[in-house]
Amino acid sequence: MNLAPETGSSATSPGVSDSWLRRNRQALAPWLFLAPGVIFFLFYVIFPILQSFNLSFYRWDGLGDPQFIGMENYRELMDDRAFEVSLWNNLKWLLLYLLAIPAGLFIALFLNQTVTGIRLYKSLFFFPFVISQVVVGLVFSWFYDPTFGLLNQVLAWVGLGPINVLGDPTLVTYGIIIAGLWPQTAYCMILYLTGLNAVDPEQVEAARLDGAKGAKMLWYVIIPQLRPATFVAFVVTIIGALRSFDLISIMTNGGPFGSSRVLSFYMFEKALSEYGFRMGYGAAIAVVLFLIMLCFIAYFLWSMYQDDKGAR
Amino acid sequence: MKTLKGTVAGLALSLGLATAAQAELSGTLKIFSDMSNPAPRAVMEQMAEEFDAMHPDLSVELTVIDREAYKTQIRNFLSANPPDVANWYAANRMRPYVSAGLFEDISDLWAEPEIADALASTKGAMTLDGKQWGVPYTYYQWGVYYREDIYNELGLEEPKDWATFKSNCQKILDSGRKCFTIGTKFLWTAGGWFDYLNMRTNGYDFHMALTNGEVAWTDDRVKQTFANWRELIDMGAFIDNHQSYSWQEALPFMVKGEAAAYLMGNFAVAPLREAGLGTDQLDFYQFPSINPDVELAEDAPTDTFHIPSGAQNKEAARAFLRFVVSADNQTKINGGAALGQLPVNSGSSVDDDEMLNQGFEMLSSNSPGGIAQFFDRDAPAEMASVAMEGFQEFMVFPDNLDDILNRLEKARERVY
């Protein structure tokens, strides 16, 4: 990798050294190293995205010849009530999923002390993130079970209930989001725990000398230093919320009567499930989801670019 | 084995068919099957083995794929890497593959007298666009499975008409139980109720017209079906919170005696027996008549074998299909030790099982109206998914009926 001596030796054999490749190797090297990644990214990410855009203008059952129908799929989306429900549910997921960030922060602050056995507590709190989403879904399904579930037994002790969380169209999405928050909070907690390790003790000391403590200390000294952790937590939580699929599939299968669907699940139902195979329509849903994601992705990239500029 | 081969050859000769090839099948026969549960899997493996033994020059390659995964994989392998024989289902469920030209037209098989006569009862289910696209290998009845001991305790009779059906139910409710268990989480179970209520209210022909998209969902006759359904819902006949349970999760309510009956396919019998219900606790009756003017019709879903149009060894595939539907083989694979279902060949005998005998009796002599497949096989997939979702909503919020029917009507206008 040591390029410098080679460049020096170029004077001895001018015919070779003046070749275009040699002259530009400083500029070319990074691109050569990037090439495998870029090719895979183009082939497996960018190209399928463009393909989905294209497919959304067709009517296709996956078997016969696709038939071009222009914007027809999108027009149908406009007055498809199931799509509207999915869109609203996606919004609920986006907003409520963000609760994982403050919850993770507070658990991290709570666990960031030196007590005997703290490692054990930390791993217990981190545990939900390690287990599969399928298991989380099953555990919460049992918890919510209207007849035998723990939730209703607890509610009965305090004279409430019974409620059928997963069978009630108004509650079901919130029920699943709560299940999703459980592992997501653990993830955010880990991000903050590592962030807390990097907090500058001198600054804390200085703030303490200035008389800051408690909430003021947290708000003006600790949280600003946790900004990188918060940013990562925000990114993974937003993406997690938009990708929500497995919990819905496991816990309700989109029901009751489709009231817990989100866009990704609805796309799966329309394009790939047992009764679906409307590839074009599924692609149209996927495009809408992609455009929503694009807003966030653009914001994240812009924000990272700003940080990068500030660091330079 | 020798005698069987001799009979087949003799039969072929006597009919003057040029099926000399029958005896000299060669190459490989690739079979893809969705019979992945333990018992069906054993059946399928044995059939492949026997067929292999019958034809020394032919090697049979069997691939068994998980039943749920099969439903999505079939689309890929039919177009990319077709086997010679594949499992699927009858009626509209095969339409996508028929329209895309992926299933072989086997009307020639159905023209052979052994098949035409012996399988006549299922010909309709295998026919699309006037041609036949596969052969059935098994079917099973639907009906009301009930707790005989609870009925005896309350002095109830198997109902033959709607009034008795409801008065029975009222007595069961008065005794602190629910009349019917059902789990609608995966929607299709509600489709079974709709099938029966609609076929009893408006008859088989109307039901077929509706699932074929020829009748509006907002039609008054459809509304009458829902009105009948609503009588049961308003009584509180169904277990609470059924929208949260799968059909298996709804079984314990019946096993524990909290619900007295289950409208289901015969496949529910095995788990109910395994859960401890004895022969004196479990019995079966035909869904009673509602409108005396319509003939009784039944749901009896049929599972089938098909030849993909891209198959390499179609001659061997046809021979395998003949073998699968032959009377002897049908008797064997549908026996209690194997699939435990009903054979489709009229020359086969039904296993000596209480439920199967009753079911066979019902389907062969007491369903003059006709045999339907099931809601999600008679209606196109897209219509079925929207409709079954509507049925589930109706069972929870019967007041939403008009809204549901308008939604279904909109789907009907788009789908067909």
Task: Describe what this molecule looks like in 3D.
The complex is a heterodimer of chains A (312) and B (416). Chain A is an all-alpha fold. Helix content of chain A is 72%, strand content 1%. Chain A is built from 17 helices and 2 strands. In chain A, strands 1-2 form a two-stranded antiparallel sheet. In chain A, strand 1 and strand 2 (67-68) form a beta hairpin. In chain A, helix 7 (100-111) crosses helix 11 and helix 9 crosses helix 11. With 416 residues, chain B is of the alpha/beta class. The longest helix of chain B is centred in the N-terminal third of the chain and has 17 residues, at 38-54. In chain B, strands 2-1-3-12-6 form a 5-stranded mixed sheet. In chain B, strands 8-9-7-10 form a 4-stranded mixed sheet. The A-B interface holds A 61-64, 76, 81, 144-147, 164, 166-167, 252-253, 255-258, 269, 272, 274-278 and B 71-72, 75, 78-79, 96-97, 99-100, 102, 185-187, 240-241, 243-244, 376, 381-382, 384-385, 389-390, 392-393, 396, 407, 414. Chain B: Residues 1-23 form the signal peptide. Chain B: This is Extracellular solute-binding protein. Chain B: Its main location: periplasm. Chain B: Belongs to the bacterial solute-binding protein 1 family.
Please identify the oligomeric state: heterodimer
The order of strands across the largest sheet of chain B is 2-1-3-12-6
**Percent strand of chain B:** 5-15%
* Structure class of chain B: alpha/beta
Q: Shape of chain B, please?
A: globular
User: How many H/I helical runs of chain B?
Assistant: 20
**Could you report the average pLDDT of chain B, rounded to the nearest whole number?**
89
What structural category do the secondary elements of chain A indicate? Answer: mainly alpha
Shape assignment of chain A: flat
Q: What's the overall average pLDDT of chain A, rounded?
A: 88
Query: What about the largest sheet of chain B?
Result: 5 strands, mixed
Q: Give the % helix of chain A.
A: over 70%
Q: What's the gyration radius of chain B in Å?
A: 22 Å
Total E-strand runs of chain B: 13
- Give the termini distance of chain A in whole angstroms: 26 Å
